[in-house]
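Try it yourself: sequence plus magnesium ion, in.
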Amino acid sequence: MSPTSPAGSPPDVGVVVPAAGRGERAGAGEPKQFRAIGGVPMLLRSIRPFASHPRVAEIVVVLPALWARKPPAWLAGVAGGRLRVVSGGDSRTVSVLNGVAALSPACRVVLVHDAARPFVSVETIDAVIHAASDGHGAIAAIPVSDTLKRADATGQLVAETVDRAGVWRAQTPQGFPRSQIEAGYQHWRDHGAVPDVTDDAALVEAAGFPVRLVPDRATNIKVTTADDFVIAEALAGQ
Ligand code: CTP
Ligand code: MG
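Structure, out:
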C-alpha cells in the first residue's frame, strides 16, 4: 500500500483532465490528445494512473464540444462509473473551470492533470495528493537545469542571461484543497482583465494561498510539438 494512502482514507479526490485543446503546435491531423503513442491514445495514457488510484473518486475529462457529444468508447472503459465528460472552452482556464464545476461535493481535493502529459508517475500523484490532503496546494515541478537567456525585442539577439537559481518548471498534476482552487477561479473571474494563465497554481497563488513544489521526474514530459511525439514513442517503448 502507498504510504500516502492510509487504510480507511476515503476516495475524496476529483481529477480534472483538460483535453479540449486543438494541439496546434503538434501540427495537422486529429488533436494530439487522441493520437496514439505506442499504440495507446495519449489521453488514455494520461488518465490510466489516476483511474487505478485508491484515493480517486471521480475523473472529469474535458473534451472539445464535438468529442464531448460522442466520447471515444475507450474512455468509459478506463474509468467506468467514476468518469464524467464535459465540454471545454476557448482557453485552458475555462476548460478547467468547467471540469471543476462538474465534480460532486464529495471531492474535497482537486487534482488537475493535462491530457498532454501521458507519462506521470504514481509517486508524483501520491506526493501531490498527500500535500493537497494536508491543506496545501502543490504542483509537480522540476528545477531548471538549462542556462536561461532573455531575447531582445527582435527575438534574435540575447538581451541578458537570466539567473536560474530557484527557478522551477511547473508541470502537472497540480493539486489543491477544493476551497482553494475554487477561490483561485473566483479571483480570476473577479479580475476579468487577467490574461489567460497556463497553469492552475497561478490562480491559487493570485488568490493568496501558498503553493508547494513537489519534485517531479523529467519523464513526465508535456507533448507539445511533433518532436515531442518522437520522444514520447521512445518513452513508451521502454
Ligand atoms: N486545453 C484545454 N482547453 C483549451 C486549451 C487547452 O482543455 N481550450 C488542454 C489541452 O488539451 C492540453 C492542456 O490543456 O491537455 C495543455 O495545453 P496545451 O499543451 O497548450 O495543448 P493545446 O492547447 O491543445 O496545444 P496548442 O497550444 O499547441 O494548440
Ligand atoms: Mg495551448
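One thing you can check immediately is this: Residues 13-140+170-236 form a domain with the Spore Coat Polysaccharide Biosynthesis Protein SpsA; Chain A fold (CATH 3.90.550.10).
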